[in-house]
Automatic annotation (TrEMBL):
<dbReference type="InterPro" id="IPR003029">
    <property type="entry name" value="S1_domain"/>
</dbReference>
<feature type="domain" description="S1 motif">
    <location>
        <begin position="64"/>
        <end position="132"/>
    </location>
</feature>
<dbReference type="InterPro" id="IPR012340">
    <property type="entry name" value="NA-bd_OB-fold"/>
</dbReference>
<dbReference type="GO" id="GO:0003676">
    <property type="term" value="F:nucleic acid binding"/>
</dbReference>
<feature type="domain" description="S1 motif">
    <location>
        <begin position="160"/>
        <end position="230"/>
    </location>
</feature>
<protein>
    <submittedName>
        <fullName>S1 motif domain-containing protein</fullName>
    </submittedName>
</protein>
Length: 234
């Protein structure tokens, strides 16, 4: 074990430790406070990291690592900024807020809430988190919006025809689905609203999950393909 660098014999103390405490030396007061807290425990919700502000370098973090965390703030409908004690705040996307669909929306986690997370992904300067159980593998992020041609290609879709889509994201309003192209173009995403989603899917929803839907119509103005699970029965 490397020797402690807390004391420097080559630099004599200006007074005996007990005298420094009596004289009110600020550095000594902090040291005594930290030592007492380490031995007897600090106030509720207090941690050594909060007082010492010792932050974890990003290079020391590992995918899959479990950490105690605290919600700093929600960010619109996309997720939450989270403090894990690192030199940079982490981010937890909405769909990673719980197993299944976060039915309480952005209020699933409120500012200041404590939680246990796992590191899902590490980018050059980003930390992504999850509270989900199970494997950490995820499909590539997919957010392509449909073009007018994509939407029009579904305009004459038979309401009894079932198409297989896959979950590519979630938001408070519903589950984002990756929809196959019908005009030799690229896949695109559309929103399956909660009222059109079966309860069993809400309970088990996860990225990459296959969801059978039927098309109920299109919205040319908003460039949307409208889908439901309620009539998608095989």
């Amino acid at each position: 074990m490397a020797p402690s660098t807390a004391a420097h014999p080559e630099k004599p103390l200006p007074a005996a430790p007990d005298a420094m405490v009596r004289q009110g030396c600020p550095a000594t007061k902090v040291g005594v406070f930290l030592l007492a807290a380490a031995i007897f425990g600090g106030p509720k919700g207090w941690s050594f990291a909060e007082v010492s502000d010792e932050r974890i370098p990003l290079a020391d973090l590992k995918v899959g690592e479990e950490m105690d965390a605290r919600i700093k703030k929600p960010w619109r409908m996309f997720g939450w900024f989270v403090d894990i004690g690192a030199t940079k705040d982490a981010f937890m996307e909405f769909e990673e807020g719980c197993d299944g669909f976060p039915v309480d929306g952005i209020n699933t986690w409120r500012k200041g809430a404590s939680l246990t997370v796992r590191i899902l992904d590490l980018d050059v300067d980003r930390i992504y988190l999850t509270t989900r159980t199970g494997p950490l593998e995820r499909p590539p992020r997919f957010r392509r919006a449909p073009t007018a041609e994509d939407v029009e290609s579904y305009g004459n879709m038979d309401a009894n025809e079932i198409i297989d889509t896959s979950v590519c994201g979630m938001s408070p309003g519903g589950i984002w689905l990756r929809v196959p192209s019908r005009n030799a173009g690229e896949d695109f995403r559309t929103l399956l609203r909660l009222e059109d989603c079966e309860e069993s899917v809400k309970e088990s929803a996860r990225l990459g999950m296959t969801v059978p839907v039927s098309v109920t119509g299109i919205d040319r103005e908003k460039k949307r393909v409208l889908v439901t699970m309620m009539t998608a029965k095989r």
